[in-house]
Protein backbone atom coordinates (compact mmCIF):
# COMPACT_ATOMS: atom_id res chain seq x y z
CA UNK A 1 0.00 0.00 0.00
CA UNK A 2 1.42 3.35 -1.05
CA UNK A 3 1.07 5.64 1.95
CA UNK A 4 0.72 8.86 -0.03
CA UNK A 5 -0.48 12.12 1.47
CA UNK A 6 -4.24 12.41 1.24
CA UNK A 7 -6.50 15.44 1.52
CA UNK A 8 -9.70 14.41 3.27
CA UNK A 9 -13.10 15.96 3.95
CA UNK A 10 -14.72 14.29 6.96
CA UNK A 11 -18.51 14.28 7.47
CA UNK A 12 -19.59 12.98 10.86
CA UNK A 13 -22.24 14.54 13.10
CA UNK A 14 -20.83 13.09 16.33
CA UNK A 15 -18.35 15.70 17.55
CA UNK A 16 -16.44 13.22 19.71
CA UNK A 17 -16.05 10.70 16.90
CA UNK A 18 -15.25 13.44 14.39
CA UNK A 19 -12.47 14.90 16.55
CA UNK A 20 -11.07 11.44 17.18
CA UNK A 21 -10.98 10.66 13.46
CA UNK A 22 -9.32 13.99 12.68
CA UNK A 23 -6.56 13.14 15.17
CA UNK A 24 -6.22 9.62 13.79
CA UNK A 25 -5.96 10.78 10.18
CA UNK A 26 -3.43 13.46 11.08
CA UNK A 27 -1.18 10.92 12.81
CA UNK A 28 -1.39 8.73 9.69
CA UNK A 29 -0.17 11.47 7.39
CA UNK A 30 -3.53 12.67 6.04
CA UNK A 31 -4.67 16.28 5.92
CA UNK A 32 -8.27 16.82 7.00
CA UNK A 33 -8.98 19.95 4.96
CA UNK A 34 -12.53 20.32 6.33
CA UNK A 35 -15.05 18.66 8.64
CA UNK A 36 -18.82 18.74 8.33
CA UNK A 37 -21.69 17.92 10.67
CA UNK A 38 -24.44 18.26 8.07
CA UNK A 39 -24.95 17.20 4.46
CA UNK A 40 -25.03 20.78 3.07
CA UNK A 41 -21.76 21.55 4.86
CA UNK A 42 -20.26 18.38 3.35
CA UNK A 43 -21.28 19.37 -0.18
CA UNK A 44 -19.89 22.88 0.28
CA UNK A 45 -16.60 21.55 1.69
CA UNK A 46 -16.08 19.19 -1.26
CA UNK A 47 -16.74 21.97 -3.77
CA UNK A 48 -14.36 24.31 -1.96
CA UNK A 49 -11.49 21.95 -1.21
CA UNK A 50 -11.73 19.20 -3.89
CA UNK A 51 -10.23 16.53 -1.59
CA UNK A 52 -8.82 13.18 -2.66
CA UNK A 53 -11.55 11.46 -0.67
CA UNK A 54 -14.64 12.30 1.39
CA UNK A 55 -15.42 10.16 4.44
CA UNK A 56 -19.19 10.20 4.89
CA UNK A 57 -21.56 9.02 7.60
CA UNK A 58 -25.04 8.08 6.35
CA UNK A 59 -27.29 9.49 9.05
CA UNK A 60 -26.86 13.22 9.59
CA UNK A 61 -29.04 16.14 10.71
CA UNK A 62 -31.78 17.12 10.47
CA UNK A 63 -33.65 13.81 10.07
CA UNK A 64 -30.76 11.41 10.79
CA UNK A 65 -31.94 9.01 8.07
CA UNK A 66 -30.03 9.13 4.79
CA UNK A 67 -28.76 12.69 4.35
CA UNK A 68 -25.11 11.66 4.23
CA UNK A 69 -25.39 9.03 1.54
CA UNK A 70 -27.71 11.26 -0.51
CA UNK A 71 -24.95 13.86 -0.38
CA UNK A 72 -22.42 11.19 -1.42
CA UNK A 73 -24.50 10.41 -4.52
CA UNK A 74 -24.56 14.13 -5.34
CA UNK A 75 -20.79 14.40 -4.85
CA UNK A 76 -20.33 11.43 -7.19
CA UNK A 77 -22.40 13.17 -9.87
CA UNK A 78 -20.77 16.61 -9.47
CA UNK A 79 -17.15 15.64 -8.79
CA UNK A 80 -16.56 12.02 -9.84
CA UNK A 81 -12.80 12.42 -9.29
CA UNK A 82 -13.38 12.65 -5.52
CA UNK A 83 -13.25 9.25 -3.82
CA UNK A 84 -16.08 8.45 -1.40
CA UNK A 85 -15.74 6.26 1.68
CA UNK A 86 -19.08 5.72 3.41
CA UNK A 87 -18.39 4.90 7.07
CA UNK A 88 -21.53 4.04 8.96
CA UNK A 89 -23.33 1.69 11.33
CA UNK A 90 -26.03 1.09 8.76
CA UNK A 91 -26.51 -0.34 5.27
CA UNK A 92 -28.78 1.91 3.18
CA UNK A 93 -29.42 -0.38 0.19
CA UNK A 94 -31.41 1.94 -2.09
CA UNK A 95 -29.00 4.85 -1.95
CA UNK A 96 -25.94 2.59 -1.89
CA UNK A 97 -27.13 1.08 -5.18
CA UNK A 98 -27.50 4.58 -6.62
CA UNK A 99 -24.00 5.46 -5.42
CA UNK A 100 -22.62 2.41 -7.24
CA UNK A 101 -24.72 2.89 -10.38
CA UNK A 102 -21.87 4.61 -12.21
CA UNK A 103 -19.36 1.93 -11.25
CA UNK A 104 -17.56 0.91 -8.08
CA UNK A 105 -14.24 2.64 -8.81
CA UNK A 106 -13.35 5.15 -6.09
CA UNK A 107 -16.14 3.96 -3.80
CA UNK A 108 -15.91 2.43 -0.35
CA UNK A 109 -18.52 1.38 2.20
CA UNK A 110 -17.38 0.20 5.62
CA UNK A 111 -19.44 -0.66 8.69
CA UNK A 112 -18.08 0.95 11.86
CA UNK A 113 -18.54 -2.06 14.10
CA UNK A 114 -16.82 -4.41 11.64
CA UNK A 115 -13.55 -2.46 11.31
CA UNK A 116 -11.31 -4.33 13.74
CA UNK A 117 -8.07 -2.41 13.16
CA UNK A 118 -7.17 1.17 12.29
CA UNK A 119 -4.98 -0.18 9.49
CA UNK A 120 -8.07 -1.65 7.77
CA UNK A 121 -9.69 1.78 7.65
CA UNK A 122 -6.53 3.47 6.39
CA UNK A 123 -5.99 0.81 3.72
CA UNK A 124 -9.56 1.31 2.51
CA UNK A 125 -9.13 5.09 2.52
CA UNK A 126 -6.01 4.92 0.35
CA UNK A 127 -7.57 2.32 -1.96
CA UNK A 128 -10.65 4.49 -2.56
CA UNK A 129 -8.56 7.64 -3.06
CA UNK A 130 -6.56 5.73 -5.68
CA UNK A 131 -9.67 4.79 -7.65
CA UNK A 132 -10.12 1.35 -6.09
CA UNK A 133 -13.04 -0.22 -4.26
CA UNK A 134 -13.47 -1.10 -0.58
CA UNK A 135 -16.83 -2.71 0.19
CA UNK A 136 -17.49 -4.59 3.40
CA UNK A 137 -18.71 -8.11 2.50
CA UNK A 138 -21.77 -7.56 4.69
CA UNK A 139 -22.67 -4.52 2.59
CA UNK A 140 -22.36 -6.54 -0.62
CA UNK A 141 -24.47 -9.34 0.87
CA UNK A 142 -27.28 -6.99 1.84
CA UNK A 143 -27.20 -5.22 -1.52
CA UNK A 144 -27.39 -8.55 -3.31
CA UNK A 145 -30.21 -9.70 -1.00
CA UNK A 146 -28.87 -13.20 -0.78
CA UNK A 147 -28.07 -13.61 -4.46
CA UNK A 148 -26.44 -16.88 -5.49
CA UNK A 149 -22.66 -17.12 -5.49
CA UNK A 150 -20.31 -18.60 -8.06
CA UNK A 151 -21.89 -17.06 -11.16
CA UNK A 152 -18.76 -15.20 -12.25
CA UNK A 153 -17.18 -18.59 -12.97
CA UNK A 154 -19.79 -19.19 -15.69
CA UNK A 155 -18.62 -16.19 -17.72
CA UNK A 156 -16.37 -16.40 -20.76
CA UNK A 157 -13.03 -14.54 -20.52
CA UNK A 158 -14.40 -11.71 -22.67
CA UNK A 159 -17.64 -11.46 -20.64
CA UNK A 160 -15.58 -11.27 -17.47
CA UNK A 161 -13.40 -8.58 -19.04
CA UNK A 162 -16.49 -6.56 -19.95
CA UNK A 163 -17.88 -6.98 -16.42
CA UNK A 164 -14.60 -5.85 -14.88
CA UNK A 165 -14.71 -2.67 -16.97
CA UNK A 166 -18.36 -2.16 -15.94
CA UNK A 167 -17.20 -2.36 -12.32
CA UNK A 168 -14.73 0.43 -13.07
CA UNK A 169 -17.63 2.60 -14.23
CA UNK A 170 -17.19 2.40 -18.01
CA UNK A 171 -20.18 2.73 -20.33
CA UNK A 172 -20.77 0.29 -23.19
CA UNK A 173 -19.32 2.82 -25.61
CA UNK A 174 -16.20 3.26 -23.48
CA UNK A 175 -15.79 -0.50 -23.11
CA UNK A 176 -16.07 -0.92 -26.88
CA UNK A 177 -13.30 1.63 -27.41
CA UNK A 178 -11.03 0.03 -24.82
CA UNK A 179 -11.50 -3.49 -26.21
CA UNK A 180 -11.49 -2.33 -29.84
CA UNK A 181 -14.80 -4.01 -30.62
CA UNK A 182 -18.19 -2.71 -31.72
CA UNK A 183 -20.63 -1.30 -29.21
CA UNK A 184 -23.10 -3.92 -30.41
CA UNK A 185 -20.63 -6.66 -29.44
CA UNK A 186 -20.33 -5.17 -25.96
CA UNK A 187 -24.12 -5.05 -25.66
CA UNK A 188 -24.26 -8.76 -26.46
CA UNK A 189 -21.65 -9.53 -23.79
CA UNK A 190 -23.50 -7.42 -21.23
CA UNK A 191 -26.77 -9.17 -22.09
CA UNK A 192 -25.03 -12.53 -21.63
CA UNK A 193 -23.80 -11.45 -18.19
CA UNK A 194 -27.33 -10.42 -17.20
CA UNK A 195 -28.68 -13.76 -18.41
CA UNK A 196 -26.07 -15.83 -16.58
CA UNK A 197 -26.63 -13.80 -13.40
CA UNK A 198 -30.42 -14.20 -13.77
CA UNK A 199 -30.95 -10.43 -13.78
CA UNK A 200 -34.23 -9.83 -15.56
CA UNK A 201 -35.21 -6.61 -17.28
CA UNK A 202 -38.17 -6.33 -14.92
CA UNK A 203 -35.91 -6.15 -11.87
CA UNK A 204 -36.54 -2.94 -9.95
CA UNK A 205 -32.86 -2.40 -9.22
CA UNK A 206 -30.29 -1.40 -11.81
CA UNK A 207 -29.00 -4.60 -13.42
CA UNK A 208 -25.55 -3.15 -14.00
CA UNK A 209 -25.24 -2.46 -10.27
CA UNK A 210 -26.24 -6.00 -9.33
CA UNK A 211 -23.89 -7.47 -11.94
CA UNK A 212 -21.02 -5.40 -10.58
CA UNK A 213 -21.87 -6.36 -6.99
CA UNK A 214 -21.85 -10.04 -7.94
CA UNK A 215 -18.45 -9.60 -9.52
CA UNK A 216 -17.10 -7.81 -6.44
CA UNK A 217 -18.58 -10.36 -4.04
CA UNK A 218 -17.02 -13.28 -5.87
CA UNK A 219 -13.69 -11.73 -6.70
CA UNK A 220 -12.99 -10.45 -3.20
CA UNK A 221 -13.85 -6.79 -3.88
UniProtKB/TrEMBL annotation:
One of its GO terms (molecular function) is DNA binding. SUPFAM superfamilies: CheY-like. GO terms for biological process: phosphorelay signal transduction system; regulation of DNA-templated transcription. Residues 148-219 form the HTH luxR-type domain. The keyword Lyase does not apply. InterPro entries: CheY-like_superfamily (IPR011006), NreC/VraR/RcsB-like_REC (IPR058245), Sig_transdc_resp-reg_receiver (IPR001789), Tscrpt_reg_LuxR_C (IPR000792), WalR-like (IPR039420). It comes from the Bacteria. The modification 4-aspartylphosphate is found at residue 57. Residues 7-127 form the Response regulatory domain. SMART domains: HTH_LUXR (SM00421), REC (SM00448). Keywords: DNA-binding, Phosphoprotein, Transcription, Transcription regulation. PANTHER family: TRANSCRIPTIONAL REGULATORY PROTEIN NARL-RELATED, TWO-COMPONENT RESPONSE REGULATOR. This is LuxR family two component transcriptional regulator. It comes from Streptomyces sparsogenes DSM 40356. The lineage of its organism: Bacteria, Bacillati, Actinomycetota, Actinomycetes, Kitasatosporales.
Amino acid sequence: MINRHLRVVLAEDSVVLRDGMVELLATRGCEVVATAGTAPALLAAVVEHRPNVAVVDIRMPPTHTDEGIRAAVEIRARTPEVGILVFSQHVETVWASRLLAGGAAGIGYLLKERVARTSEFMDALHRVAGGGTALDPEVVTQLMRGGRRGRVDTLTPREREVLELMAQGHSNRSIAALLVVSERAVEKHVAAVFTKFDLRASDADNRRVKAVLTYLAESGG
